[in-house]
Design goal:
eight-stranded mixed β-sheet; 8 strands; 190 residues; 6 helices; Rossmann fold; single chain
Length: 190
Amino acid sequence: MTIIICPGIHDPNLTESFILGLLSTISDSSINQKHINILVVPVQGVLTLSSLHVLHFLHDRLGSKLKSPVIFISFSAGVVGAIAAAWQWQNWGGQVKAFIAIDGWGVPLWGNFPIHRLSHDYFTHWSSLSLGSGQDNFYAEPPVDHLTMWRSPQTVKGYHVDSSVEIDTITNRLTAAEFLSSLLRNYEEK
């Protein structure tokens, strides 16, 4: 399973912290870490908005493995470039197993692949649903700072919600990293 990490506009150390927090949670789950390939798109500043830079990176790293399934995990402004790159990657014949947007507030998310949103508070979760989301989403409760969602997902507590029904159905309380781990476990099995 290849995970494409598309950071936002922030200190690169936050992305390293995100990956460490996610991997520490994955190591506690039944996901086989040996089969996980994490690729971080090396863009900074406004280039995080550029799907062309994301696609260039994907082509450089996975060009000969177009059919290999990928999961996008994107954050903040990085969601903009990542969703457009995911559409294009799929149009080229690539397989997008899932798209996960962390605090991609205001970014329309549609595609013929599974989409999930994680939000730093309920308002961001609720106000983003009309712009597209999948069935399984997450919001922090109590609310946290925007960058905390990326820096320390293992410390952010909140709710897994089923947004496929008219009124969100809260299914359980867990951390953002546990929610991500459960999504990855689900897609690893498919």
